[in-house]
Amino acid sequence: MREKRIIRQNEKDLIEFLLKELNLNPEEYPVDEYVDEYEDGKMGSISLGGDVSAYVGDLIQVEYVDSDETPVVITLTKDEKGHLLDLDFWKVDFTKLLEYPTPDKIILRGNV
Q1: Is 39 helix (H, G, I), strand (E, B) or coil?
Q2: Which of 32, 36, 85, 99 could in theory staple to 1 by disulfide, Cβ–Cβ 3.0 to 4.6 A?
């Protein structure tokens, strides 16, 4: 992971959207002001400040199609204390994320 940076508004918006899709109150899942990027931000994955070794599971997994028509799987994870851990992006061809997803472009396939 790199040096921490301030979380971007589009990242906060996506997290809030995913929590609401789970009927969870975003106020009960505070997000740190600072995040760490994985892979130098290549795919968009960020650590939300939890203990990576305390991963317990996925809260929700959704899909998105990037502007190059490549599918992206987005997963919001939690730690053993129930805190948000990661907002993880996996672009199926491992290339750089070209356009950050907005809630209106998310494809819901059912919760984890």
Answers
A1: helix
A2: 36
**Is the Cβ–Cβ distance between 74 and 92 less than 8 Å?**
no
How many folded domains does the chain comprise?
1
Q: What is the pLDDT along the chain (112 residues), one digit of tens a residue?
A: 457 899 999 999 999 999 999 999 999 998 889 998 988 767 889 999 877 788 999 999 999 999 999 999 999 999 998 889 999 999 999 999 999 999 999 999 755 5
Range of the domain at 38: 5-108
Q: Give the Cα separation of 2 and 19 in Å (integer).
A: 26
Phi then psi dihedrals of residue 54, to 5 deg: -100, 20
Full-model pTM? 0.89
- Contact status, residue 89 vs residue 44, Cβ threshold 8 Å: yes
